[in-house]
Write a structure and sequence with these properties.
The protein is an alpha/beta fold. Helices cover 42% and strands 14% of the residues. Strands 3-4-5-6-7-8-9-10 form an 8-stranded parallel sheet. The chain has a two-stranded antiparallel sheet with strand order 1-2. It is globular, with a radius of gyration of 19 Å. The termini are far apart.
Amino acid sequence: MRRLLSLVKKQRKVTGNKMKSYKLNDGRHIPVLGFGTWKAKDGEEAYQAVKAALEAGYRHIDTAAIYQNEESIGKAIKDSGIPRDELFVTTKLWNNRHTYEDAVNGLEESLHKLGLDYIDLYLIHWPNPVTHRENEAWKERNREVWRAMEDMQAKGKIRSIGVSNFLPHHLDALLESAKVLPAVNQIRLAPGVYQEEVVRYCRDKGILLEAWGPFGQGELFQNETVLTLAKQYDVTPAQLLLAWSLAEGFLPLPKSVTPERIASNLQCSAIALSPEDCDLLRKIPVEAGAPNPDTKDF
């Protein structure tokens, strides 16, 4: 790992310990790497994982109401002693929130569990709840919860607002009434899972793409192309996969509960992949593609 360590030391001389950021379409900045907490169990597991991430240098924590770990994450944030304005916290509105009032209550509940006065980024988690598919009722649902999010943003309880798992037709419907353009669309993106139509749409609109599942479903750690390139660049497969996301202009959200891996993943920004290798990774054949939000059973 000598090559990577050399790159990291060189980078620290230039940027210090401050993580680089993307500028969102609302003018705010978001760290280029987030720490994902999906499937991190509430209690010690989530608490210790977030604690380790913050100690390693992460300043962007991503959670959601449905993850049921906001309280543990809030405790880790509080115990870290890191000033609030140095942190970027994302959470999401779940599918059981359908009205304006539901969205307001959902936000207040997340704020209470996290122990925060405001959320840096609040997302509609999925665009088409199974309860709202008849007669495209999801369109009105999204309009109403988005209107609430816009109002809560105006009141300072949310800094930036966005969506997750939205396809172009979901975004088209939302933009018919939205006063605020979504700052982010968090979708599944990884080598071999490249949602080209969504990527192109969001780039054209200036919507930042966040990549959940940047390691795939774990199968990429055994992929021959990934292993070969990781050896070539003298990095771990996880670092390579995260470096690919950054090279594509995505914001990856790696998840781990192992302190060593949490710290190791953070070093991915020091890796410069060639355009040819990025393209090679983009075209990796994988079995599990992106989920279809119009057919999920929740």
